[in-house]
Specification:
globular, about 200 residues
Length: about 200
């Protein structure tokens, strides 16, 4: 993924790159050339997040893209075209972190979206700016937000636990940029100007 150059795929056997870019005259091309995230499906298809063109699904068989773009306010659509993070739930379901649109869950089999946005209840996020996503060993979804710290969604209950720099022994900063789970199951949280 590149910033304005679309997607480059390296073929180790041929030692060459294939290039995919947006073509404004082709609705089956990549929706936008700023690519931010990837998640592979079991069949070789690839989910692709773009910062300006929403979500894309690349078909390994046809070499074409299906686009899922924002329609703010419409429940069965993305809420922002700035897709910054992806996390796969299973072959047909994906979590989508967006800038200003919060978190979306998309079920490709039923073509349905569910949204989680900023609010004041245990079912809401601390921020609509989602920069990082991570599924842990227990099946929880860790959500790294800008200005809202880390939000952890218990997917079965729908309850979100929040961790911020205001907590006793809390985060170094509320602007989260990266999440990583190591081999021990410990979660590493990278922040913007607040260290790990």
């Amino acid at each position: 993924g590149t910033y304005s150059g679309g997607i480059n795929i390296y073929d180790r056997n041929l030692t060459t790159f294939s290039h995919f870019k947006n073509n404004p005259f082709d609705k089956n091309s990549l929706s936008y050339n700023v690519t931010t995230s990837f998640e592979e499906r079991g069949n070789g298809d690839m989910w692709i997040g773009t910062d300006g063109g929403g979500l894309n699904l690349f078909s390994a068989r046809t070499q074409q893209f299906t686009r899922f773009t924002a329609q703010p306010g419409k429940q069965n659509a993305l809420q922002s075209n700035a897709v910054l993070a992806l996390a796969k739930e299973d072959e047909n379901k994906i979590w989508i972190g967006t800038y200003e649109g919060g978190l979306s869950f998309f079920d490709a089999a039923s073509n349905r979206f569910k949204h989680y946005q900023k609010g004041n209840t245990a079912f809401d996020l601390n921020s609509n700016k989602v920069f990082a996503l991570l599924k842990d060993k227990s099946g929880n979804l860790w959500i790294g937000t800008d200005e809202g710290g880390v939000n952890v969604l218990d997917i079965k209950k729908g309850i979100i636990t929040k961790y911020t720099e205001q907590d006793k022994k809390g985060l170094g900063n509320n602007d989260i940029r990266a999440l990583y789970m190591d081999s021990n199951g410990d979660i590493w949280v990278g922040t913007f100007a607040g260290g790990l």
